[in-house]
């Protein structure tokens, strides 16, 4: 399992990275938002740990870009922004979970495991045929990883005899 850790505080990042590696994960660590975007474009991650306040691209910008490109990798915000408004905003932006600093590394591990389990259930809800992929849970059809917009009703073809 591969995790991207996007955190600009070196001491926190080293602690998190070491802890997750002891849990058996491969962890890629980046200190800047633009580097996080590059890593996401180049690698497939099972979970992304994303600080909201990072240089060169904020966590919010990164998450918006992910979701606009229909990348459903679980994202856990790890941040010092702790107000209810911040939490609600983060989740509404598309984060799967929200963890306020300082946090327990054991709790972080549990949340990562939870997100990966949920992602595995989501993968099982996909039907793939040739260039088509149907996400039965999200009810989205993809052709070559591009969303196919479907109407809500079936239109009968007219036949002439």
Automatic annotation (TrEMBL):
It comes from Acinetobacter gerneri DSM 14967 = CIP 107464 = MTCC 9824. GO terms for molecular function: phosphorelay response regulator activity; transcription cis-regulatory region binding. One of its GO terms (biological process) is regulation of DNA-templated transcription. SUPFAM superfamilies: CheY-like (SSF52172). The modification 4-aspartylphosphate is found at residue 51. Keywords: DNA-binding, Phosphoprotein, Transcription, Transcription regulation, Two-component regulatory system. It comes from the Bacteria. Residues 2-116 form the Response regulatory domain. Gene3D superfamilies: 3.40.50.2300. One of its GO terms (cellular component) is protein-DNA complex. This is Response regulatory domain-containing protein. SMART domains: REC. It holds the Pfam family Response_reg.
């Amino acid at each position: 399992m591969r995790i991207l850790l996007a955190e600009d505080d070196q001491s926190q990042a080293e602690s998190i990275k070491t802890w997750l590696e002891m849990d058996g994960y491969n962890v890629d660590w980046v200190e800047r938002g633009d580097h996080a975007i590059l890593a996401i474009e180049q690698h497939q991650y099972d979970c992304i740990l994303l600080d909201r306040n990072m240089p060169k691209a904020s966590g919010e910008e990164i998450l918006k870009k992910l979701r606009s490109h229909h990348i459903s990798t679980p994202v856990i915000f790890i941040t010092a922004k702790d107000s209810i408004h911040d939490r609600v905003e983060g989740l509404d932006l598309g984060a799967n979970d929200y963890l306020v600093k300082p946090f327990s590394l054991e709790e972080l591990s549990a949340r990562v495991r939870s997100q990966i389990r949920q992602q595995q259930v989501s993968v099982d809800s996909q039907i793939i045929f040739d260039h088509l992929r149907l996400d039965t849970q999200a009810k989205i059809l993809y052709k070559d990883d591009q969303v196919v917009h479907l109407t809500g009703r079936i239109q009968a073809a007219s036949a002439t005899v």
